[in-house]
From TrEMBL:
<dbReference type="GO" id="GO:0050004">
    <property type="term" value="F:isoflavone 7-O-glucosyltransferase activity"/>
</dbReference>
<protein>
    <recommendedName>
        <fullName>Glycosyltransferase</fullName>
        <ecNumber>2.4.1.-</ecNumber>
    </recommendedName>
</protein>
<comment type="similarity">
    <text>Belongs to the UDP-glycosyltransferase family.</text>
</comment>
<keyword id="KW-0328">Glycosyltransferase</keyword>
<dbReference type="Pfam" id="PF00201">
    <property type="entry name" value="UDPGT"/>
</dbReference>
<dbReference type="InterPro" id="IPR050481">
    <property type="entry name" value="UDP-glycosyltransf_plant"/>
</dbReference>
<dbReference type="GO" id="GO:0016757">
    <property type="term" value="F:glycosyltransferase activity"/>
</dbReference>
<dbReference type="InterPro" id="IPR035595">
    <property type="entry name" value="UDP_glycos_trans_CS"/>
</dbReference>
<keyword id="KW-0808">Transferase</keyword>
<dbReference type="InterPro" id="IPR002213">
    <property type="entry name" value="UDP_glucos_trans"/>
</dbReference>
Length: 481
């Protein structure tokens, strides 16, 4: 009998790779009869520890094989958005993807080719080979609804969202969003990324199914909208089935970047219960020196304990086109206010570049999480039952902010200055105190703990996500190839 396999193709960003790898592990855990091949691009946004991460996953899960595609050159100019460069890079891998798929079908039956939204360029190639294509959506159901509805919004608007001052955008299952806060790649019609995103979003309805890293109980309204197809207004016939199989979060095998980062865990273990505010802004969330200074002042004035992950600052002249390489050596004391580390050393710890976030959030001493609202971080906060302070930076994070603050009610939001999104030190102090000291903070904490239980139950034997995964696998078992 021919081997049956699932092929996965994540976008080249660690926030996208980790959750797809977790999907692979979950499939193997519940349904051992598949092997899984994960195709990874090489040469752009490569995480410094990606090779050791791959080795660790492959040795603990022999049914999961990684295939690094040959290196493809990247042509990034400072006038081009990072999203446009990333999409161009992914497209340049199309030939490599085709070659690899052809090679795999020589010996195996591909039951499903599961791609990231940003890897839509691979859909036509696979469909032409009669390989069923599914999306794995690495953000939540609200964003899936917004993106599915985006072609409709596009047809009703003429200007770039960034220029639509005071206009609110509505999509099913989403609260109205200021046009200027729409996801970063669709802000500007002059950016090639806008047109690529339109192409991607038009293809969502063409997939055999959409697997989403969320769970029904977390996003009740948005899940209903994506399931009943209300977010696909122009699709004739039925919209693709949606499988909410989350929350999938990284385990201890995630990439560790810096040596010595585990020291922060022993520091956390010495702090009182629920006393520490953890600040971390994802894999590429870095700030200007001016903004870092305000955060430091706000933390100092709040009087609370903190663990703060600081990335290499962005160079201010690059403006909003943030550098994506925020790793590498730099001196913390030279970028933080003079004497800050010394003055706060009894109650604060600043970590350079990277902390083992999932482990950090599971520590008893963590009392709050200041997050950039990257969806993996949101889910990790939910799974740990930690109340959050929402500080969106880029991508679809403003949508996630609304979900966290208004729907899930597990976070308070920082107030950001219109235009440059600057947050003052007073605002940092105010929100930290609100979360840690106020009645509202106490209510949010209680709610977060309820979601923690719901997240665990969703993945339990009879949970909604376990059932959704079984339904998905069932469709593969009946597809004759
Ligand atoms: O010091 C750090 C920083 C990050 N992480 C981990 O890295 C991942 C970061 O993922 P996420 O929180 O989703 O942020 P991004 O890396 O910014 O993710 C991108 O991808 C997400 C999923 O599509 C989107 O929601 C985001 O907006 C987009 O920026 C998480 O697992 C974190 O635990 C650490 O372990 N330590």
């Amino acid at each position: 009998m021919e081997e049956t396999t699932i092929v996965m193709y994540p976008a080249p960003s660690i926030g996208h790779i980790i959750s797809m790898v977790e999907l692979a592990k979950l499939l193997i855990h519940h349904h051992q009869h598949f092997s899984i091949t994960i195709l990874l691009t090489t040469g752009f946004m490569d995480h410094p520890s990606i090779d050791s991460y791959i080795n660790r996953v492959s040795s603990s899960h022999p049914s999961i094989t990684f295939h690094r595609l040959p290196t493809v050159a990247v042509n990034h100019t400072t006038t081009q958005s990072i999203a446009a460069t990333a999409f161009q890079f992914i497209k340049s891998n199309a030939v490599n993807i085709e070659t690899k798929l052809r090679q795999i079908i020589q010996t195996s039956v591909i039951k499903a080719f599961i791609i990231d939204l940003f890897c839509t360029s691979a859909m036509e190639t696979a469909s032409a080979m009669q390989i069923p294509v599914y999306y794995f959506f690495t953000s939540g159901a609200a964003v899936l609804s917004l993106y599915s509805y985006f072609p409709k919004i596009h047809s009703l608007t003429k200007s770039s969202f960034k220029d639509m001052v005071g206009v609110e955008i509505s999509a099913p299952g989403n609260m109205a969003l200021n046009a200027a806060l729409m996801p970063e790649p669709v802000l500007d019609r002059d950016d090639p990324a806008y047109w690529e995103m339109l192409y991607f979003c038009e293809h969502l309805s063409k997939a055999k199914g959409i697997v989403v890293n969320t769970f029904r109980e977390l996003e009740v309204v948005a899940v209903k909208v994506v399931e009943d197809g209300a977010c696909f207004p122009d699709v004739e016939g039925s919209s693709p089935p949606v499988y909410c199989i989350g929350p999938l979060i990284a385990d201890a095998q995630q990439p560790d970047e810096a040596r010595g980062i585990k020291d922060c865990l022993s520091w956390l273990d010495k702090q009182p219960s629920k006393s520490v505010v953890y600040l971390c802004f994802g894999s590429r969330g870095s700030f200007s020196m001016t903004q870092l200074k305000e955060i430091a002042e706000g933390l100092e004035r709040s009087g609370h304990r903190f663990l703060w992950v600081v990335k290499r600052p962005v160079q201010e002249h690059l403006g909003t086109k943030k550098v994506y390489d925020t790793t590498g050596e730099f001196d913390l004391s030279s970028i933080l206010p003079s004497g800050f580390i010394e003055r706060t050393k009894e109650r604060g710890l600043v970590v350079r570049s990277w902390a083992p976030q999932v482990e950090v959030l599971s520590r008893e001493s963590i009392g709050g999480f200041v997050s950039h609202c990257g969806w993996n971080s949101v889910l990790e906060g939910v799974v740990a039952g930690v109340p959050m302070i929402a500080w969106p930076l880029y991508a679809e994070q403003h949508v996630n902010r609304n979900v966290m603050v208004e729907d899930m009610k597990v976070a308070v939001a920082v107030e950001q200055r219109a235009g440059d999104m600057f947050v003052s030190g007073e605002e940092v102090e105010k929100r930290v105190r609100e979360l840690m000291d106020s009645e509202k903070g106490r209510e949010i904490r209680e709610r977060s703990l309820k979601f923690k239980d719901m997240a665990r139950d969703a993945l339990g034997e009879f949970g909604s996500s376990t059932k959704a995964l079984a339904n998905l696998v069932q469709t593969w078992n009946v597809i004759s190839h």
